[in-house]
Design goal:
By secondary structure, this protein is of the alpha+beta class. It is built from 26 helices and 20 strands. It folds into 5 domains: about 150 residues, no CATH class; about 55 residues, no CATH class; about 120 residues, no CATH class; about 200 residues; about 120 residues, Isoleucyl-tRNA Synthetase, Domain 1 (Orthogonal Bundle). It has a 5-stranded antiparallel β-sheet with strand order 2-3-1-9-10, sandwiched between helices. Strands 15-17-18-16 form a 4-stranded antiparallel β-sheet, sandwiched between helices. A 3-stranded antiparallel β-sheet has the order 4-6-5.
Length: about 700
């Protein structure tokens, strides 16, 4: 059997760069799954992509499926043969139906008797035949964030498909999709070598791409861009700032990269660095340039998709575009500086936060109150920091009314800090204005200052409470109000700054500030808080497990009533480090015996020592009181080792209690009192964790 390479190319109109990385991953993953399902053996699958093509290259794909055997159960032996051992119609019919002589069919025994069992060999299909039906399904399976429909086929894809190339070995694989028939023709670079080009085999395909000015391998293309950009910068003895996300985007914008060094007037360097970088990177896909001192230089590098001969026009065109953009930015900046940041707060009365939740100005008033509430829960907060936090809360959204943020929304917070400093605000308050947006994305930094953390917590708490109060919840992949990011950021800040505050209490206070809204008068706080906590606790579990904690330890601690995030983490980390200790196993064993019976207790009853009649229950009660005092004291000092030791020490009096005392006696008062004692002990254990959630290895 000869293994051959396979090449599949889906030629399209230019696909958005942000669609490509995930599209290529899907193509590779789904192809591997489909080939394995069909029994097709291969060495590896590689996927490549440019703006105009998605390519799959399969090395050493076997020529056919392997033959396989299929067992077919027939009638019973009694039905297949008569008393003389001669075949009956049932036996002969079964043999004829499966195409195997009756004498070659075996007899299988089972609990229900003997029956005919045939083993039928099914020859594998040729790979060429399998591919003809598999490849259209593979192309259809690629999901993009947005699709287009075109022409009469009504096919869905990121952009219209214009050609299909598919060659297995030296043979074309014929199939149809989107009104097109596959063949051996491809297209080169749209401007430099358009084609069409005829491809002989998979190896020849890559030669054709090189000859037609297309670097089809995105990893190689990215390397060419990075090296070319740095070389262009080095020509002026400066260095380029290469952002990884921008590099990936530019990689999927071009097929034939040609870095071009351009310049802009030095006078624009007077603009804040963030304005310049954002204008170049986010809006124009340019790479900024800085000197060895880290200062921006009046240069930038663009990456052209054209020939070197056209670079002069590319340079002048891009320089004109950036100059115009920077002129606009300078105008916006100068206009914004005509009033202080504080004066801009009034304009927030005319900017809507959310239709049912009011304006940004109303949100600002809530942020001030939440921040003031939070200052009582930050340890070691100075008066200066408290003042900065409240000032930052008042100014935090003011830059949303500026011309600059209106033009460059991604600069919110950045410009707030800049304008705050230019307005004479303190550095702490200005920094907090910027930090209150952090973290902005996964992996982003957290607020470093206490004022910034307070303002950030207030903003995210208000966002969550308001959205959940009016029924806005994420569904599946849809999260237009970024509630997942907001809740995770809130939890991370509470953890990082060790804020001594119950999550539910924070939500309760925040919700109370919405009571003035007429449409929210009938809020059921407990129900809303429950929904918010459930939502946030899903993120928190993920956050803890991402830090290397076992799922059962996370569940054990998060099943306790505790809601202070930093304290939860301290206990989770402690139990993870001590999960093999004898003390933990003893505490868990004792808890499980208690918890099983405590479920039947009346939660409103407290144990009454006057009702104790057995020595064992009196001893347990005194042990409980002693342990309770020590446990609460140890927890108050964050001494988790002492806490676990005290809970483990309760095992002996508990064991004696269960030996000496019958809990479920006929006397209702005595029974209820004993159950109340067990419930009190259970609740004491829950001060640390729900030990029933912890999984211990079975002892041999």
């Amino acid at each position: 059997m000869i293994d051959r390479d396979l090449i599949l190319e889906i030629g399209t109109e230019e696909i958005p760069a942000r669609f490509m990385p995930e599209g290529l991953k899907q193509l590779q993953r789904t192809a591997g799954e489909l080939f394995k399902e069909q029994g097709l053996v291969f060495r590896e699958i590689l996927t490549f992509g440019t703006p105009r093509r998605l390519v799959m290259f399969v090395r050493e794909l076997t020529e056919k499926q392997p033959d396989r055997e299929e067992q077919v159960k027939g009638p019973s032996k009694k039905a297949a043969f008569d008393d003389m051992g001669k075949p009956t119609k049932a036996g002969l019919g079964f043999a004829a139906r499966i195409g195997i002589p009756l004498e070659e069919i075996g007899i299988e025994s089972s609990d229900k008797g003997e029956y005919l069992l045939a083993v039928r060999k099914i020859p594998g299909k040729k790979t060429m035949d399998v591919l003809q039906s598999l490849l259209p399904f593979l192309i259809k399976s690629i999901a993009f964030p947005k699709n287009m429909f075109w022409e009469g086929s009504r096919t869905k894809f990121a952009r219209p498909i214009r050609w299909l190339l598919c060659i297995y070995g030296v043979e074309e694989v014929p199939f149809s999709y989107a009104g097109l028939k596959s063949g051996n023709k491809t297209m080169g670079h749209r401007l430099l070598s358009p084609g069409p080009l005829t491809v002989r085999d998979p190896g020849h395909y890559f030669e054709c791409m090189e000859e037609s000015k297309v670097i089809v391998d995105q990893n190689r293309r990215a390397k060419v861009i990075e090296e070319g950009v740095q070389a262009a910068a080095l020509s002026q003895k400066v260095r380029a700032l290469i952002d990884s996300d921008l590099l990936e985007e530019v990689t999927f914008l071009v097929e034939h990269p040609e870095p071009v060094l351009c310049s802009f007037p030095e006078e624009y360097l007077q603009l804040p660095r963030e304005v310049l970088v954002t204008t170049m990177q986010s809006h124009q896909r340019y790479f900024p340039v800085e000197n060895t001192d880290g200062e921006l230089c009046p240069y930038f590098i663009t990456v052209s998709n054209n020939s070197a001969a056209a670079l002069s026009n590319v340079r002048s065109g891009n320089e004109k575009v950036l100059k115009a953009r920077l002129a606009d930015a300078r105008f916006f900046y100068q206009e914004d500086l005509k009033t202080t940041l504080e004066q801009k707060v009034e304009k927030l009365k005319y900017i809507l936060f959310q239709e049912e939740l009011g304006t940004i100005f109303e949100k600002t008033q809530r942020l001030i109150k939440i921040s003031e509430y939070l200052t009582d829960h930050f340890s070691g907060l100075s008066e200066a920091e408290k003042k900065a936090a409240l000032r930052a809360a008042y100014l935090s959204k003011a830059d949303l009314s500026t011309n600059m943020v209106g033009e460059f929304p991604e600069l919110q917070g950045v410009m707030g800090k800049e304008y705050a400093l230019r307005s004479g605000e303190s550095e702490d308050a200005a920094k907090a204005v910027y930090e209150h947006y952090l973290p902005r994305f996964a992996g982003d930094k957290l607020p470093g200052s206490k004022p910034g953390a307070i303002a950030a917590i207030a903003d995210k708490a208000d966002h969550l409470a308001g959205c959940f109060a009016i029924g806005i919840r994420p569904t599946g992949s849809q999260d237009p109000y970024a509630l997942r990011r907001q809740s995770l950021g809130l939890l991370q800040i509470l953890l990082e700054h060790k804020v001594s505050l119950s999550f539910s209490e924070l939500m309760k206070f925040t919700l109370s500030l919405y009571k003035e809204k007429e449409q929210l008068i009938d809020l059921q706080d407990d129900e809303i808080i429950g929904h918010i906590k459930d939502f946030a606790w899903q993120r928190l579990r993920y956050l803890f497990q991402e830090r290397g904690i076992d799922y059962d330890v996370v569940d054990a601690v998060m099943s306790s009533p505790l809601e202070e995030i930093a304290s939860l983490w301290a206990r989770i980390k402690f139990l993870q480090e001590n999960r093999k200790s004898v003390l933990l196993e003893s505490a868990a064993a004792a808890y499980n015996r208690v918890a099983n019976l405590a479920r039947q207790a009346d939660s409103d009853l407290e144990p009454d020592k006057k009702l104790f009649s057995e020595k064992g229950e009196e001893n347990l009660y005194h042990s409980y009181l002693s342990a309770k005092k020590k446990v609460l004291d140890a927890i108050g000092r964050d001494d988790l080792e002492e806490t676990l030791a005290q809970l483990a020490d309760l095992k002996e009096p508990l064991d004696n209690f269960f030996i000496e005392v019958l809990v479920m006696v006929d006397d209702k008062a005595v029974r209820s009192n004993r159950l109340a004692l067990l419930l009190a002990i259970k609740n004491l254990y829950l001060e640390l964790a729900d030990f029933s959630k912890i999984v211990f290895p079975a002892h041999s």
